[in-house]
Design goal:
With 134 residues, the protein is an alpha+beta fold. It has one domain. It is 31% helix and 16% strand. The strands form three sheets. Strands 1-2 form a two-stranded antiparallel sheet. The model has no long low-confidence stretch (mean pLDDT 95).
């Protein structure tokens, strides 16, 4: 990845994952650029289509654009950090992320944001006031 793009992504995201808000400084794996609309779906490699992502969120999202809502069974698009406001779709309940909309719920489920290990790490960081609960 181009160094200038990487630097711009990190800066825009305030050095945290644009999906789960994990601070980059506590990641065990290097953060990655996520194509919000994947290359295979003709998404360009431009800042307007890139998100700063932790390895967990990026690996689980892959090239997906949507997922099935567990409640309604309807296909719902995923959260788009370039066009959606995080606070409209998500809120914290302790160390668990809660989806306030179908978009938020599907994104949390597909990216496995509340997987047990991830919640445990967030809980420890939150207790030490090192994980933003916003």
């Amino acid at each position: 990845m181009d160094t200038a793009i990487r630097k711009a992504l990190r800066h825009r995201a305030e050095a945290r994952c644009e999906y789960c808000h994990q601070p980059e400084r506590f990641a065990t794996l290097r953060f990655q650029q996520d194509h919000v609309i994947a290359l295979k779906h003709r998404g360009p490699t431009v800042l307007e289509n890139l998100a700063w992502s932790c390895a967990d969120c990026n690996a689980h999202k892959g090239s997906d654009l949507a997922g099935l809502d567990a409640t309604t069974g309807r296909l719902e698009r995923l959260f788009n950090p370039r066009t959606d406001r995080w606070a409209e779709h998500f809120r914290w309940n302790g160390a668990e992320l809660v989806g306030m909309t179908a978009i938020g719920q599907v994104t949390i489920a597909l990216l496995k944001i509340n997987r047990e290990e991830r919640v445990a790490v967030r809980r420890e960081l939150m207790e030490a006031a090192l994980y933003p609960a916003s």
